[in-house]
Write a structure and sequence with these properties.
Blueprint (H helix, E strand, L loop, with lengths): L2 H6 L5 E3 L8 H9 L4 E3 L6 H14 L4 E6 L5 H10 L4 E5 L4 H9 L3 E6 L2 H10 L4 E4 L5 E2 L5 H11 L4 E4 L5 H9 L4 E4 L13 H9 L5 E4 L7 E4 L2 H11 L4 H8 L2 H8 L22 H16 L1
Parallel strand pairs: 1-9, 2-3, 3-4, 4-5, 5-6, 6-8, 8-9
Antiparallel strand pairs: 7-11, 10-11
Length: 305
């Protein structure tokens, strides 16, 4: 056991990154059953959605799992209430400082792990009572910060005394072993789980991830203050062109609204938002979630013999 696995009550210190529209009960349960920690992605969903997903997850696993709370979501209060009432064991948070929720969550026995893009925020959430932090580098898919995983993880590890979980660009045992050498005690993996057999994204989305090369991701929306890493397609070409035309933040966000659902549910690989990290080039085959976790762990063993 290492400190992250012990904290979470799981076999392996591997967390599945929360992905809106993607990390639902089937994938979450499969990851937890495979020895990692599955995490329900909530995005901008409300408390009723969370309750439904938590209950469906419990029908498929008796292992620990978590819920991700998006602090900027208008339903954040409602989601926190649902998490506490449903006795969810672990929470990760993103898109903001979760300080105002930590006391209530911990009083309910919830392990709280904020995702942070900087050492400064890591120190703030540690002071507020966080049990661990996920240091996520800009190689990650979806909403990102500006610092690379290689630079961020050791600085966060030096800044806090709670366990550090590395995220961003990690898709195999080599990346995980490197993260441990940088000071992490666990890893969070998202893009690789897009290829999981239990992942319910459209086949068109999955096929694009499996076919991706090392240079196939791009970041859009930097000028909005909320940049997003996705796979290149017709949508990204159009949005990057509009950014050069100095489109307003409101216009940009309106045009992007609903595009993730287009990718995940409708299978629109041209005009859907195909969120994926730079590690997509390492994802070459479809496997079960359990096989992915075992492959990562075996890779770690090979690197550390």
């Amino acid at each position: 056991m290492n400190e992250v696995a012990e904290l979470l009550g799981v076999r392996y210190p591997v967390l599945q990154g929360a992905m809106a529209w993607v990390s639902e009960h089937r994938l979450v349960a499969a990851v937890s059953n495979g020895g990692g920690l599955g995490i329900i992605g909530t995005g901008a969903a409300d408390g009723a959605f969370v309750r439904d997903q938590v209950r469906k997850t419990r029908e498929l696993t008796d292992k620990p799992f978590g819920v991700n709370i998006v602090i900027l979501s208008p339903f954040a209060d409602d989601v926190v209430k649902a998490v506490i009432e449903e006795k969810v064991p672990v929470v990760t948070t993103g898109a903001g400082n979760p300080g105002k929720y930590i006391d209530d969550l911990k009083a309910a026995g919830v392990v709280v792990i904020p995702v942070v893009p900087s050492a400064a925020l890591a120190k703030r959430v540690e002071r507020a009572g966080a049990d661990a932090v996920v240091a996520e580098g800009c190689e990650a898919g979806g909403h990102i910060g500006e610092t690379t995983t290689m630079c961020l993880v050791p600085q966060v590890a030096d800044a806090v005394s709670v366990p550090v979980i590395a995220a961003g660009g990690i898709a195999d045992g080599r990346g995980a072993a490197a993260a441990f050498m940088l000071g992490a005690s666990g890893v969070q993996v998202a893009t690789r789980f897009l290829s999981a057999k239990e992942c319910v994204i459209s086949q068109a989305y999955k096929d694009r991830v499996l076919a991706a090369s090392d240079t196939d991701t791009v970041v859009t929306g930097r000028f909005t203050g909320h940049p997003v890493r996705v796979l290149r397609n017709k949508l990204t070409r159009e949005m990057l062109a509009k950014e050069k035309e100095e489109i307003s933040v409101e216009e940009f966000e309106e045009l992007m609204s609903g595009t993730l659902r287009k990718a995940v549910v409708e299978g629109d690989a041209d005009y859907g938002s195909l969120m994926a990290g730079q590690s997509a080039g390492l994802v070459t085959k479809e496997q079960s979630a359990a096989e992915i976790i075992e492959d990562i762990m075996e890779g770690i063993r090979k690197c550390t013999r």
